[in-house]
Here is the input.
Amino acid sequence: DAKTTQPPSMDCAEGRAANLPCNHSTISGNEYVYWYRQIHSQGPQYIIHGLKNNETNEMASLIITEDRKSSTLILPHATLRDTAVYYCILRSNDYKLSFGAGTTVTVRA
Amino acid sequence: EAGVAQSPRYKIIEKRQSVAFWCNPISGHATLYWYQQILGQGPKLLIQFQNNGVVDDSQLPKDRFSAERLKGVDSTLKIQPAKLEDSAVYLCASSSVFGRAYYGYTFGSGTRLTVV
Here is the structure.
């Protein structure tokens, strides 16, 4: 069962930063936070992951609160191609990913 | 690196028929997963393999679903007999775990099954 809570949908203007929130209040000390996205008719695509520290890669930034009960995925300059369903997932110790319903992000021109 | 390959891409069958899906993971990835994604929902894990052994199949409806991973590489997922509610996209993913040096799963594009 998914252990994260995300808003069902959000809109973002092209060229602006998109901030996607995720609550995971029952996270345990050794669970990683993963973000994936799924563009229509494709398999989920890895974006970023983290444990405690903030992380940044070429796709996005991940901000994890100090108590680790929530996180935010930041897409710095959203494009139309970033329209997708974004999943915030806690990776269990047995390396399984349990997906929730995710957030449908629509980037508008 | 080459991605996770799945076939077929689409399949339409009648209820009570059987169907099989094939997955070729990324070379060297020891862990392989099958997920079922019903329209409008997130993927649901069906089975997890480590090499050719089953790690977790607790969510696999074993009365009709079966999966195998021979020689720890390719995998097949079979449904027999199919029901209408099996209509979904079946995703295969693989990963390579080396202690803390673990980055993420790579998913295939999936097989879209329609049972009529």
In short: The two ends of chain B are 37 Å apart (CA to CA). The CA atoms of residues 67 and 77 of chain B lie 4 Å apart.
